[in-house]
Design brief:
heterotetramer, A alpha/beta (364), B alpha/beta (452), C mainly alpha (445), D mainly alpha (355), A: alpha/beta, eight-stranded mixed beta sheet, globular
């Protein structure tokens, strides 16, 4: 279905469930597939509750387990299935081949150790080096991420750093062992725009220098457009759309992606997406988004989530929407009304399937 | 902007928090969270206040309606100074002004049902007709898109977006004329943000409500505000009509903020002017223009012609030298590591053992200074100062640098100038008497218009 | 987002969306409220709270009267020092009030007769429990069901709760329908039913009651738990001890909760020197070795049940106040408090409606720790012989058997098991309640 | 930092004074039974009651005004003269030095063991939350917290003393002492030693604190005071560790490839150690001080708790006040120490900001 050559990380049909007290399963991730190419950035974008963070944590199995578990699916890194390796092997992958940075720099550093100690720990866990060598490496890393006077600051505690600097320290820590893949989970969400710009620029620089692949998790389409090579749009544990960043932004195919883009401030549409996420323990049949979709037709609520169909015959860009099935007319979504939500009547148009004319005229 | 017609006018509002230390808790300093801001809000107008976290915008919100007592300043509401109000008058004033908050989850008492929460402003104002109160609450809930039956439900049964709508209903219960919204949507998903904003916008139109929106998100402000004030370290650096401010920002800080927003367009990559460093401590704000420590457009002293980023590096070095914070040991260690095997282990490196020229090179490297500055007179001063620095004469180096590289931005607090009746800005760049020749101004314009 | 709330959107999606979208425009003004009229009118209270206030005032008057007669007019340390004053207070003054009479130095009320001081406290505690605990649960069935669903997951706690209810009912009813066990010569040393002991352990009268044959006596159902060394019925003693333990635990905890919550809320709301003084005092109080203080106070003031409850109530609150303060400090910064202030609420409203309900977790946590510890402390004091000598409590029974461990081992063991199980149940219950109402889990379902 | 310590020191002295004052006044309010007895006795013997009372008061220094007695006690206390114990007929200082070792004999091992075991179980159950082990540990801790120490002691005495006969029902404090009455770690003595009165045997037996006989009689008190200690420590350790188990930085550590064991020891225990140390010294110490009264009464151990109890019952003023002040000082000093430790251990707390 997609290009398998030159793939660093291949996530195939990944499911992550969380067992609740009542014995039900919360299907946080429910069949997700995507790839990350070496040296490239794949961004997973979605709202809160879409399962994007759990997906990223499932790669190195960082989610709390129990109650979380992976009922099926594979995560292949360099031909090795990470869901099947032993705990010891997983530990050498974590921080060695795959590193993480998290959303909240405030909490991600242990408050009672110096930053030097924490970077050193990352180095010494994976490399057989002396403490002095590890220290030197720490200074080097901190200098690279742009912390001035690194060798003095090594002995400072996290609270002595500002939010942006903390995130730099965390990046330094993540890069300690030259990972092949860096998973960045909303690394700039907790930061001011100005600091966000600094961190994004830094990440781009470092990625180029090291030819490192990046999996970037974010809810901000602006950030996606800034950093990503490929985009995966997630909704309610499923992939809605996948493709190269240019294609996805120029020809957003899935109605959900289109709605998300509409919501951005400055895009004119003070719309929003009516409705709520489906129940994660008992998702409805058919497309997870059908309930809120202005283009939903009857077949959208039948069977499972639609396959990822090619958009406009480019194999790299696919959307999980029945309108893109070979027998259907994608024009319904692509050329039809793009005022997905501004009329506030999203639900009533569910049955109609066809947008009304006046709305179409109003837009563009 | 005559005060007689303004609904709400704030003049020179200050809110300082004392810092107490020692055995008797004597005051040793003050956090100047809000340090003299002035603005007015007309009926039916939406004004936005934007700035980075820690700039004092939330404190401004709470002290402008006396939820915290302001340290100084006048606040007129309908021509009456509310700082003079007594308890009773203040309670009456609370009917006219309401607030909504950032976090929908903590905006509601988890142990009070939604009906009571929305009715609370009515109850505490003494409205004890229960029948009618229920009618009003039901009506309000329906207006914000919920149902009257939701009255008996508890906050945790609603989603974030719904809660923010209920917060709006609560704020409107007493039919206020001014609404202060502190980051009303920043805790919400994008798809829900716009719904809430739309609702605020609608009520504003319908009820002739005046709104003050506090946000760190320029997108939000752009969406619903008529005028915008940009705040930095307790002060307004620029105030103007939204349209004008976004298309023709005058203050370098406004420009930096605008350019830092990632655009959802992959063809336009690259985040423009990058602000270095963080917001300084409001307990010890920089002299002169408070933004000069991070400003990408600091005005060089006369006769020095350097590229802006080099000039900034010089300024940074100078600041560190004056504060005696240049750690030669550390620089030597970093330099040694980068130089590789030549120096054995990091711990063995001592700054004194290293050849002066080499150390100077490393210092330049650390402070991102080229080996030779473009401007010869500047280079002369710099190399003299560096020479003094590495030979241990920090004070002399500081003096040398201060003498030559002092800029008007750190010396003088820029006045707030009106560019048009509605557009005010506080920056030396807009002051012809400071910038002098139009050349340099054009230079800055040119630098800005060309993306990096 | 009207369409977001799932149950309602299905009913009338179009309706609500028009209300939000277009309907609002036509009908722009909200209802006009005549604030001037409202400002001039005083506020009323609900019927429920009026009834409660009446009960509390009647209670306070009667309790105050009893205290006055007992400690100012009656024969006590205080009255010695109030000599001249006492002369002026002729008992006939009390008798002159219709329906009241003096009975052996106690005020006798119509219907209820003489009520001892500790019983006054016990009654108001139970009333308060109904008003602040049971009534809200009854009025809020949704919330009740929600808490119950979470609570019942913890089986141990449900069993504990049942056990405590049973203990309470048996103790409460039992000590009213039976009389206190009295020592009876010769009836001593009877073993519990089914247990045998050498007959020389059993008193002469007891030998007739128990099944004695061949130098061995076996207990019978007449004294199911056997008797003490002085011939008291242990079964009756255990039943009376149930009420004592419950009363001391609940009443003293209630008293300390009221003090602790009051001081914590006022300190947090007003801060400044009130806070400083109150919590400096708490520092000192907590530094005092508590058990030492109990010993000292009980020894110096005397161990009547009323005094015991007061001592526990007035000493135990410090830790609770500290916990509540730190909780309330966090709550104080919550936006809903600010919102309430921004709406013009007065301090009392904010404290009662916002701060108090939201520190209820800490209150319950604290109560669940305090009740068992007070029960244990009372038992320990009784064990040392410093409890109320006129009442039979578990600690006293345990002490009775202590010198005859080798032969009459059941005297210490049986009440001890009840004491242990009661304390254990309170601990389990408290833990489950804490879990059930922990707001961190709220909305999880 | 120095201002902070100075402030805390001043406050500690002030608090101790207040407590002393309260104790002093309370003791003074209590009707003196010794005095009543003297008066009664004098009257029954047909002498003047007043005279006897006066003589008694003079003997005990009670004839002076309250304030004078108070100041002289405080000055004496500060100078190391802690007064005379009428109950024990020796200086209070000697009573303390005589009794304290017995409290420590079971108290110290019990604190150490329960800290180690409690902490280990607590951490284990926090890391393995909601597993069977966790539930078992939780149940055990409830058991330990709920069981009344003194009753448990009695029950153990019934079982191991009365029924099984493994231990003696009476505590023999002479076993730890030499024939002269001095404490010794380990030694031998023949049948003339006061501990062996009534026993006839040849040769010598071991005596002293570490002698098997002494250790045997210490097992039960140590165990009883341990149950509560382990349970309390376990609850606190578990609760504290749980604060950090889901912390973001633990996830970060995990993502670096840190092993589970190392995460527990380095990343969870270390930050939890700060609040735990507070609990350990503070409440824990209090637990033993309180527990010691009843344990010593039940087992008949002549320790500080028993002395304090006897002092109160017999209105031995000076001894009461000193036994009140000893734990108070312990608590105050350990509070101070732990606050300073807090500052030292937890880099987040800047002492400059504390008042």
């Amino acid at each position: 279905m997609s290009v398998h050559t030159d793939t660093l990380l291949d996530v195939e049909d990944l499911h992550v469930y969380f067992r609740t007290d009542t014995g039900e399963n919360v299907r946080a991730v429910d069949g997700v597939s995507f790839q990350v190419q070496p040296g490239k950035t794949t961004a997973i974008v979605g709202e809160s509750g879409s399962g994007k963070t759990v997906t990223s944590e499932a790669i190195t199995q960082l989610f709390p387990s129990p109650p979380g578990y992976i009922p099926e699916g594979s995560v292949t890194l360099d031909g090795q299935d990470l869901t099947e390796i032993s705990d010891d092997e997983m530990r050498s992958v974590r921080g060695g081949k795959i590193s993480h940075i998290f959303q909240n720099p405030q909490g991600a550093l242990n408050p009672v150790y110096t930053v030097g100690w924490q970077i050193r720990e990352a180095v010494m866990l994976h490399q057989d080096v002396s403490k002095t060598e590890a220290n030197e490496r720490a200074v080097e890393l901190m200098t690279q991420v742009g912390i001035p006077e690194a060798s003095t600051r090594l002995d400072d505690y996290p609270h002595e750093f500002s939010g942006g600097q903390k995130q730099r320290v965390i990046i330094a820590m993540a890069l300690a062992c030259e990972p092949d893949l860096l998973i960045a989970d909303e690394p700039t969400t907790a930061l001011d725009v100005t600091i966000q710009a600094q961190i994004l620029n830094l990440l781009k620089e470092l990625q180029e220098e090291r030819d490192m692949a990046m999996l970037f998790i974010t809810h901000d389409l602006g950030v996606v457009a800034e950093v990503a090579d490929r985009v995966v749009v997630m909704y309610a544990g499923k992939v809605m759309e996948r493709g190269p960043v240019m294609d996805v932004f120029q020809t957003p195919a899935h109605p959900y992606t289109r709605a998300l883009l509409e919501c951005l401030p400055g895009e004119g549409g003070l719309g929003g997406i009516p409705g709520q996420l489906p129940e994660p323990t008992d998702p409805p049949d058919g497309c997870r988004f059908a309930d809120r979709c202005p283009h939903a037709v009857e077949m959208c609520t039948e069977g499972g989530q639609p396959d990822l169909y090619d958009v406009r015959n480019t194999e790299a860009h696919t959307a999980s929407c029945v309108h893109f099935a070979p027998t259907m007319d994608p024009g319904v979504v692509l050329d039809g009304s793009e005022r997905v939500a501004t009329d506030g009547r999203g639900r009533t148009s569910t049955d109609a399937g066809q947008p009304s004319d006046d709305e179409e005229a109003e837009h563009r | 902007m005559s005060s007689s017609t303004s609904l709400f006018e704030v003049r020179n509002l200050e809110k300082h928090y004392p810092i107490n230390r020692g055995l008797f808790n004597t005051e040793v300093g003050r956090v100047r969270a809000v340090d003299g801001i002035s603005f007015s809000v007309e009926r039916g107008e939406t004004i936005g206040i934007v700035g980075e976290s820690g700039c004092g915008k939330s404190t401004a919100a709470t002290s402008m309606i006396r939820l915290e007592e302001p340290t100084a300043g006048e606040i007129d509401f309908r021509g009456e100074d509310i700082t003079e109000y007594d308890e009773k008058e203040l309670r009456r004033f609370r009917r006219e002004v309401q607030m909504i908050f950032q976090d929908p989850d903590s905006s509601f008492n988890p142990r009070m049902n939604i009906g009571n929460a929305v009715a609370e402003p009515l109850i505490v104002q003494g409205f004890d007709d229960e029948q009618r109160r229920r009618a009003i609450v039901g009506d309000l809930l329906e207006r914000v898109g919920l149902s009257a039956d939701d009255m008996n439900r508890f906050p945790h049964e609603f989603s974030g977006g719904q809660k923010q709508r209920i917060a709006l209903a609560r704020a409107l219960a007493v039919n206020p004329s001014l609404l202060v919204a502190d980051e009303p949507v920043s805790a919400l998903d994008v798809s829900i943000q716009s719904e809430v904003l739309r609702l605020i916008d609608r009520f504003q139109d319908e009820l002739g409500l005046a709104v003050v929106v506090i946000s760190h998100d320029l997108g939000v402000v752009q969406e619903i505000c008529d005028r915008v004030a940009v705040m930095y370290l307790g002060e307004f650096v620029e105030v103007g009509p939204t349209e004008e401010l976004f298309t023709d920002p005058q203050h370098p800080y406004t420009r930096a903020l605008l350019s830092a927003i990632p655009t959802p367009d992959p063809t336009e990559r690259g985040l423009g002017v990058e602000l270095t460093g963080d917001v300084p401590e409001p307990s010890d704000p920089p002299s002169g223009c408070r933004f000069h420590t991070r400003c990408p457009e600091v005005i060089p002293p006369e006769g020095i012609d350097l590229a802006q980023d080099t000039w900034r590096s010089v300024l940074h070095l100078r600041k560190q030298v004056i504060a005696d914070q240049v750690d030669l040991e550390s620089i030597a260690e970093v330099g040694a590591i980068e130089a590789g095997d030549e120096f054995g282990s990091m711990d063995e490196v001592e700054a004194e053992d290293i050849d002066n020229d080499r150390l100077i090179g490393w210092v330049r490297q650390e402070y991102e200074l080229p080996n030779q500055l473009g401007d010869t007179s500047a280079e002369q001063t710099l190399s003299q100062a560096l020479e003094e620095l590495v030979s241990g004469q920090q004070e002399a180096a500081a003096e040398t640098l201060t003498e030559r590289f002092e800029t008007v931005c750190e010396r003088q607090d820029p006045e707030t100038r009106s560019l048009s009746p509605d557009h005010r800005v506080a920056c030396h760049l807009t002051d012809d008497s400071v910038v002098g020749s139009t050349d340099s101004e054009n230079e800055y314009r040119r630098q800005l218009s060309s993306p990096e | 987002m009207s369409r977001e709330s799932s149950d309602q959107s299905a009913a009338d999606p179009a309706d609500s969306s028009t209300a939000a979208a277009d309907g609002g425009v036509a009908d722009a003004r909200f209802e006009d409220v005549d604030w001037d009229r409202i400002d001039s009118v005083n506020r009323g209270r609900s019927l429920k709270s009026r009834i409660w206030l009446t009960i509390v005032s009647i209670w306070a008057t009667a309790f105050g009267g009893t205290l006055f007669v007992r400690y100012v007019m009656g024969d006590s340390i205080l009255s010695e020092r109030l000599g001249p004053l006492q002369d002026a207070l002729d008992p006939t003054v009390v008798e002159a009030i219709p329906l009241l009479s003096l009975n052996d130095g106690w005020v006798s009320f119509p219907v209820v007769g003489v009520v001892e001081l500790h019983n006054w406290l016990w009654w108001i505690t139970l009333a308060g429990f109904v008003y602040y605990g049971a009534l809200p649960l009854y009025e809020n069935p949704r919330m009740t069901r929600y808490y119950w669903r979470r609570f019942r997951k913890n089986k141990a706690a449900v069993i504990s709760g049942l056990f405590l209810v049973v203990i309470f009912l048996i103790g409460f009813v039992g000590s009213r329908v039976t009389s206190q066990p009295e020592p009876e010569a010769g009836l001593d040393g009877i073993p519990p039913v089914g247990i045998s002991t050498e007959s020389y352990n059993v008193g002469p009268a007891g030998q007739k009651v128990a099944d004695c044959a061949g130098g061995v006596c076996t207990g019978t159902w007449e004294y199911p738990f056997g008797t003490t060394t002085s011939g008291e019925d242990i079964f009756l003693g255990v039943i009376h001890g149930m009420e004592i333990s419950m009363m001391v635990g609940l009443t003293a905890t209630a008293a300390s909760l009221v003090i602790a919550a009051g001081i914590a809320l006022v300190s947090v709301y007003y801060g400044g020197w009130i806070d400083e003084i109150a919590f400096r005092w708490v520092d000192i109080q907590l530094t005092f070795p508590a058990f030492f203080l109990y010993l000292l106070l009980v020894y110096s003031i005397g161990g009547s049940m009323f005094i015991l409850i007061l001592i526990f109530g007035f000493i135990e609150w410090g830790g609770g106040a500290r916990l509540m303060r730190s909780e309330a400090l966090q709550r104080r910064e919550e936006p809903y408090i600010t919102a309430s202030k921004a709406a013009g609420a007065n301090p009392l409203w904010t404290m009662r409606k916002h701060l108090l309900p939201n520190i209820s977790n800490t209150i319950i946590t604290y109560a669940s720790l305090s009740i068992p510890s007070i029960i244990l402390a009372e038992a320990a004091l009784s064990f040392l012989g410093l409890g109320d000598p006129t009442m039979v409590s578990w600690g006293q029974l345990i002490a009775d058997g202590r010198d005859n461990l080798a032969n009459l081992w059941w005297i210490s063991t049986i009440p001890g098991i009840f004491l242990f199980l009661t304390v254990l149940s309170f601990n389990f219950l408290g833990d489950a309640l804490r879990d059930a109402i922990d707001p961190r889990h709220e909305g999880a379902e | 930092m120095k201002w902070y310590i100075a402030k805390r020191l001043v406050w500690s002295v002030f608090a101790a004074l207040i407590i002393l004052t309260i104790g002093f006044v309370l003791m003074d309010v209590v009707p003196d039974q010794g005095l009543q007895q003297v008066e009664f006795q004098a009257q029954t013997e047909g002498q003047s009651g007043d005279q006897a009372v006066q003589a008694y008061e003079e003997r005990r220094g009670l004839d002076e005004p309250l304030i004078d007695r108070y100041t002289s006690f405080v000055t004496g206390f500060v100078q190391g003269d802690w007064g005379w114990s009428y109950e024990y007929q020796q200086p209070v200082t000697e009573v303390i030095t005589d009794t304290l070792p017995y409290s420590m004999m079971y108290g110290v091992p019990s604190i150490i063991i329960s800290t180690i075991i409690g902490m280990a179980i607590g951490l284990y159950s926090a890391v393995n939350q909601y597993t069977k082990t966790d539930y078992a540990a939780t149940f055990f801790s409830f058991f330990g917290v709920s069981i009344p120490n003194w009753w448990f002691g009695i029950i153990l005495l019934v079982i191991f003393g009365s029924f099984l006969g493994w231990v003696d029902l009476d505590f023999s404090h002479r076993v730890a002492e030499t024939a002269d009455g001095d404490l010794t770690w380990l030694g031998t003595a023949d049948s003339s030693h006061p501990a062996f009165i009534g026993e006839n045997f040849e040769g010598e037996r071991q005596i002293g604190i570490l002698s098997p006989t002494n250790l045997k009689q210490l097992i039960l008190p140590t165990f009883v005071s341990m149950t509560a200690g382990i349970a309390a420590m376990m609850r606190y350790a578990r609760a504290e560790a749980l604060e950090y188990v889901d912390a973001e930085f633990v996830k970060t550590a995990k993502s670096k490839g840190v092993s589970n064991w190392r995460i527990v020891v380095r990343h969870i225990l270390r930050p939890a150690a700060v609040p735990l140390s507070t609990i350990l010294v503070g409440r824990f110490l209090g637990l033993f001080l309180t527990g010691s009264y009843l344990i010593e009464v039940v087992f008949g151990i002549p320790g500080l708790g028993l002395a304090s109890y006897e002092a109160i019952i017999n209105q031995d003023q000076n001894l009461v006040l000193v036994t009140l002040l000893v734990p108070t000082f312990l608590v105050l000093v350990s509070n101070l120490a732990q606050d300073i430790a807090y500052v030292v251990l937890d880099p987040r707390i800047s002492y400059g900001d504390r008042t």
